[in-house]
Design a protein that fits this description.
Largest sheet: 5 strands, parallel
Distance between the termini: 23 Å
Number of helices: 5
Order of helices and strands: EHEHHEHEHE
Shape: elongated
């Protein structure tokens, strides 16, 4: 049995990981922690930072800093979850990729997992029409556990 856990850096995805670890331990399943880094998100944040600071000349620099921070943050979260898995005796691996979150998640989730686990909310903590949760749940072949 293989379980995919979608990690976006939010407390909700980390809570989902805790539930997935418990299931994996009980079922002796392999856990895959999966995250997608999207440069479009870094670009949007950098532009907003430029507008707020009234410094549009440095948007590229802001983007590079945000991108590095995003990568560092997700690696840190994944490392902490890997340590927890090891401590719990759960077989776990990490997969971090870049691109469109929707496309990459669907591609990975539909590649032979028994269960996909994700948080009910993203980093903003808000649900809205067209959220990633709503976009992926109906298009994933495996059962999906949504944790809130």
């Amino acid at each position: 049995m293989r379980i995919l856990v979608l990690i976006d850096g939010s407390k909700w995805s980390q809570k989902a990981a805790l539930h997935a670890i418990a299931v994996a331990k009980k079922k002796e399943a392999k856990l895959v922690l999966f995250s997608v880094l999207d440069k479009k998100e870094a670009k949007a944040l950098a532009f907003n930072m430029g507008v707020i600071s009234q410094d549009l000349a440095h948007v590229q620099r802001f983007e590079e800093k945000i991108w590095e921070d995003m990568k560092r943050s997700i690696r840190e979260i994944m490392t902490n979850l890997l340590i927890l898995c090891r401590d719990e005796g759960v077989n776990c691996s990490v997969k971090i990729t870049e691109g469109s979150a929707l496309e990459k998640i669907l591609e990975e989730a539909n590649s032979g997992y028994s269960l996909v686990v994700m948080g009910a909310y993203g980093r903003s903590g808000k649900t809205r029409i067209g959220s990633l949760l709503e976009e992926v749940v109906g298009r994933i072949k495996a059962p999906v556990m949504v944790v809130r």
